[in-house]
TrEMBL record:
Keyword Chloroplast (UniProt): no
First-listed, main subcellular location of the protein, grouped into a coarse class: nucleus
Keyword Chaperone tagged: no
Name the UniProt record assigns to this protein: Fungal-specific transcription factor domain-domain-containing protein
Domain Zn(2)-C6 fungal-type: residue ranges: 5-33
Localization annotation: Nucleus
One GO process term, biological-process aspect: positive regulation of transcription by RNA polymerase II
UniProt GO MF annotations: DNA-binding transcription factor activity, RNA polymerase II-specific; transcription cis-regulatory region binding; zinc ion binding
Sorted UniProt keywords: Nucleus
Length: 521
């Protein structure tokens, strides 16, 4: 959900530049900026659009026909109703409890919905997930509203709206815990405060400190499914907090929190309880960052053992083998992440017999590459020109597929880059970036950008970086670091006029030359 502008500019009906924390228009005109948070709309005198009127349609019709209103009582038919999915599911659940048959479809729909809300058969009424705790103050309510409206700034490049809905459901689903002891809610406040006030914000650091203290205090209770889920979500939000801090990004401290997540999911005996369909978006979120961190580890320092755990697909759909793709929740297909891990994992540690790939694993990699090549097609993923705009999510998925094939050509097949099929993939990647205009995903932008060899292609990459940097609705913290790395690769390739240095050696030198571990997620 993007930010449409501050409330002051909306009332004035002028275009807002969406600067934080105060709109530039309001600052220039010395007006009070009302911010970007949620505001309630109340009825106004003389405003028919906001009037709350109960109109009796039957009475009006009888009056037109000359009916006697005093003799025949008219039951009102109009109702002022404000209900959501939770209210409907609760009403159906009550009917089922009282023995009222709502119909087969309604019964099946209610059963699925209540299972997703973890309701037991003993009819324990769930707490409405859209209601914040009563003790939330004005500042925290503002931070919660900002998080809801600006999820792409904090959770990108994933499908931020779907992921944010899941995070808020976990954060607001425990009415018994106060907001100060709720690690997920405090992590949401920390992330929102960081985006609003910058890395020097004392409030953001205070919220972060509460999260760390609460996670440390519950470390012994992680055998419980609910506690494990809350602490994992909170730790992943802290990981995103570190990504959004400029000083942290320069030091690569995001590794600390992400390695903590990897240790938990690979060692906790309660992790199997989270392999459920309603948690798929969360598990896919972790796997996406696991896979792309492998790329960083592959090129940053060799040998390097990383966190010691190989990424694994854990979502219920993938494990069931029904072909569900991760792109539904994070914008990247499952097979792309699997093949990327396969291409990177061999070089993470020094060669040893136990790290040798089996024939089945090599065959799996071949199948994945064929599957991705088929999805891209012989003529690229961009169809013939049409008046109907393409779905952006589909284009982002295609961008990851093209980038994956380019990297596999370089890392596994060791192509020189002059082959026709490889140049065709580069061309299709450039066309996709031009059509997208902005790119939140750092990894495909880096892979395709490094392949630019002439001025036209390089100017196109710089144009995408500039457009991404200027977009106030999307995450752009990755653009500067990714752009500098791409330009460093260009410089090394230009200096190697005779092509004597292998392409992968250039990537190793550029990425490994950094004092900190970068991130391409």
């Amino acid at each position: 959900m993007g930010v449409k502008g501050c409330w002051t500019c909306r009332e004035r009906k002028v275009r807002c530049d969406a600067q934080r924390p105060t709109c530039g228009n309001c600052a220039k005109m010395r007006r009070e900026c009302q911010g970007y948070g949620i505001q309630l709309s109340w009825p106004r005198d003389g405003d028919s659009k906001r009037a709350v009127v109960l109109r009796d349609v039957d009475a009006r019709r009888r009056r037109q026909r000359g009916g006697d209103l005093a003799v025949v009582p008219v039951p009102p038919r109009a109702r002022f109703v404000n209900v959501g999915a939770w209210d409907v599911a609760l009403a159906l659940a009550v009917e089922l409890e009282k023995g009222i048959a709502p119909g087969e479809y309604a019964r099946q729909h209610t059963a699925r919905y209540l299972r997703s809300m973890s309701m037991s058969t003993s009819m324990q009424l769930p707490h409405p997930t859209y209601l914040p705790p009563a003790i939330m103050n004005k500042e925290e309510s503002h931070l919660l509203g900002f998080f809801t409206e600006s999820t792409s700034l904090m959770l990108g490049p994933t499908d931020a709206e779907t992921l944010a809905h899941f995070i808020l459901r976990i954060a607001l689903s425990d009415p018994d815990s106060s907001d100060t002891t709720n690690p997920v809610l405090q992590a949401v406040f920390a992330l929102a405060s960081l985006q609003l006030h910058g890395s020097g914000s004392a409030n953001a650091f205070r919220y972060k400190r509460r999260v760390v203290a609460e996670i440390a205090s519950e470390a012994t209770d992680w055998l419980d499914e609910r506690a494990l889920l809350k602490n994992l979500v909170a730790t992943m939000l802290l990981y995103h907090y570190e990504l959004g801090t400029l000083e942290s990004s320069r030091r690569g401290t995001w590794v600390t929190f992400f390695c903590a997540v990897k240790r938990i999911i690979n060692t906790s005996p309660a992790m199997d309880k989270l392999v459920r369909r309603e948690y798929s978006v969360f598990l896919d979120w972790i796997y996406y960052h696991e896979a792309l961190s492998e790329f960083t580890v592959r090129h940053w320092k060799i040998p390097y053992e990383g966190c010691g755990f190989a990424p694994m697909v854990r979502s219920a759909g993938a494990l069931d083998g029904i072909g569900r793709q991760v792109e539904e929740g994070i914008g990247c297909p499952t097979e792309v992440l699997e093949l990327l891990v396969h291409a990177c994992r061999r070089a993470i540690v020094a060669p040893c017999p136990e790290m040798a790939y089996t024939a089945a694993e090599l065959e799996r990699a071949t199948v994945l590459e064929q599957c991705i090549s088929t999805a891209v097609g012989d003529f690229g993923p961009i169809p013939a020109p049409t008046t109907t705009p393409r779905n952006r999510r589909t284009m982002v998925s295609d961008l990851h597929r093209v980038a994956c094939l380019i990297y596999v050509n370089r890392a596994v097949h060791r192509v020189s880059g002059t082959e026709f099929r490889h140049r065709r993939l580069v061309r299709e990647g450039m066309l996709l970036l031009r059509e997208l205009e902005t790119c939140q995903s750092a990894w495909p932008l880096f892979i395709i950008g490094c392949e630019a060899v002439d001025d036209e292609q390089r100017l196109a990459i710089l144009h995408v970086c500039e457009r991404s940097r200027r977009d106030p609705r999307q995450r752009s913290s990755h653009v500067d670091s990714t752009g500098r790395l791409v330009e460093a690769v260009w410089n090394q390739r230009d200096l190697d006029e005779e092509g004597q240095v292998e392409y992968m050696a250039i990537l190793d030198a550029v990425i490994g030359g950094l004092a900190f571990m970068p991130l391409f997620a």
